[in-house]
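Friendly challenge for the regulars: who can give me the structure tokens for this chain first? No prize, just bragging rights.
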Amino acid sequence: MNAVQVWVASVASLPSRFTTTTTTTTTTTSIVAPVRPSPIMPPADSRLQIATLIVAAMAVLASAVSIYFVRKTEKETTSASCKLADAAEMNAKAADRAATASEASAAAADKNAQAAEDSVSLSAQTAEAVGSRAAADALAKRYQDAAEQLGHERATVRIAGVHAMARLADDWVEQRQACIDVLCSYLRMPWLSTGNVPNDVGDLEVRRSIGFVVRRHLVPGAGPVS
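First reply, four minutes later:
Bragging rights claimed.
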């Protein structure tokens, strides 16, 4: 029985031991101070926040730099576009001036061509008028010479005057009838005579010459001019 009593006593004493141990452990736990973070090494959450802030700051800086360069590029592009627009406008104005100059040159060329044409026409008209006047003067001079020959005292000169007047009538259409009238007037004149006897046969030959040239122009096919 003593052994049983010892065992019971041992068992009964177990709670007391466990309690003591627990109390001791509790006391020990309450006495130990909590672990504080070191002031030099921040905790993990703080480091994460700092890294996040740094990344955010770098992103903001990168955005600012990007915006700066974008704006600078836009300004340069706008300036280049303005310069190109100004250059295009200047080229357009230069083209307009060149077109205006070309039109003025074409108009001047037309005026010069018209003036040259007018000058040529005027020269032609002047030359024609001068030629006509010269031809008329030449015909008038031939008429005067032929009339003088018809009034010459020598019969041979008068015969030459008859043929000269006939040729003039062929050439001078406007005064042909006047030439014929002169020849017919000579036929109506009285015979040249000395007293009651006609002059030498020279005057007769002159009248025969007039009759010959008149008859030659009246007969069809006898001469080139009727």
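The longest strand covers residues 193-194. The helical segments are 2-31, 44-150, 155-171, 176-188, 201-218. Your move, everyone else.
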